[in-house]
Design brief:
Layout lengths: L6 E5 L13 E2 L6 E3 L2 E3 L9 E3 L22 E5 L6 E8 L16 E8 L4 E3 L6 E6 L2 E9 L2 E9 L1 E4 L4 E4 L2 E5 L2 E6 L17 E3 L5 E3 L11 H32 L3 H11 L29
Parallel strand pairs: 1-6, 3-15, 6-16
Antiparallel strand pairs: 2-3, 4-5, 7-8, 8-16, 9-10, 10-15, 11-12, 13-14, 17-18
């Protein structure tokens, strides 16, 4: 039978599952169960002081209370996208059960997503509150335990043979549980979903003109890159200035050559008394001018 509906609040912005919440906590060194999203503290119901860490859940309404065990806690609505580090693991639509029987009742016009950690977890309700679960059977993983309200970290390599104070146990694997984040929304809520889309999944960004500008690595297009176009534009500008300078120089030479001889003699006699002009002699030679190469073309 579904539990009473508890709406923890909206989740329309991006939220990341904290890294520290991914470390499973075990009750003992020979235990075969472990739980993510735990912390060590004052819990009279647990001899080690293990309790649910509410900071391993997305932000909630301030009026939502929690005990040492949240027992599935509730759902977020409106909410559309699983937290970072989580992924869709089960779904349901309205009265249809879908592929999982959610703990909290679903209204006819609602769509529901069950979010679990992105590492092979599945939705589960093993005779109690809904949760996520997986089985670790090979490799090494970091596990934690509580001692005097403090966290103790250890590495566990599976399969393992573990000896405690009273016995030796072979661990072929451990079952790990993690908080399920349930998201509910209605069709009319979709207008609020634009703020929850992550930038990491966006393949285009709005350009200044209001159009869409897709990212590309340049290898799939035959056109010039922005840097190449900028370099060509700079080169054309420099060549244009050189042509204008050469034209002005030739125009000055031609103008001087067409002046009357008497005028030339008068100007030169006034400027250099006693000097003799040798008409027909070659014009003065100007040293060649090289373009400044300090501002070479570069990619933008």
């Amino acid at each position: 039978m579904p539990s009473a509906r508890t709406n923890l609040g909206p989740l329309t912005t991006e939220w990341k599952y904290p890294d520290r919440c991914t470390v499973p906590v075990t009750d003992c060194s020979t235990c075969t169960n472990a739980w993510q999203g735990q912390t060590c503290g004052n819990n009279k119901d647990n001899t080690q002081g293990v309790l649910d860490d509410t900071d391993c859940w997305p932000p909630r309404k301030s009026s939502i209370a929690a005990g040492n065990a949240v027992n599935g806690w509730g759902f977020y609505s409106p909410a559309f996208e699983c937290p970072q580090g989580y992924e869709t693991a089960c779904t349901a639509t309205g009265p249809e059960t879908g592929n999982f029987n959610f703990q909290f009742s679903i209204q006819d016009d609602e769509r529901v997503i069950g979010c679990c950690p992105s590492s092979g977890y599945t939705c589960a309700q093993p005779g109690g509150p809904q949760t996520c679960t997986t089985i670790a059977s090979r490799g090494s993983l970091q596990v934690a335990s509580c001692s005097k309200q403090k966290t103790v970290l250890n590495w566990l390599t599976l399969p393992a043979t573990v000896t405690d104070e009273t016995s030796t146990v072979s661990l072929d694997g451990i079952t790990i549980f993690a908080p399920m984040i349930q998201l509910n929304y209605r069709e009319k809520d979709l207008s609020l979903s634009s703020g929850s889309t992550r930038s990491t999944t966006t393949v285009s960004v709005p350009a200044e003109t209001g159009t869409s500008e897709s990212f590309s690595d340049g290898s799939s297009s035959g056109g010039l890159s922005t840097g190449a176009k900028a370099g060509i534009g700079a080169g054309v500008g420099v060549v244009g200035l050189a042509i204008i300078g050469a034209a002005f120089y030739l125009w000055r030479r031609r103008k001087r050559a067409t002046l009357p001889a008497a005028e030339l003699e008068t100007k030169e006699d006034t400027k250099n008394a006693g000097s003799v002009l040798n008409y027909g002699s070659p014009p003065p030679q100007y040293p060649p001018v090289e373009l400044d190469a300090t501002n070479s073309r570069h990619e933008m």
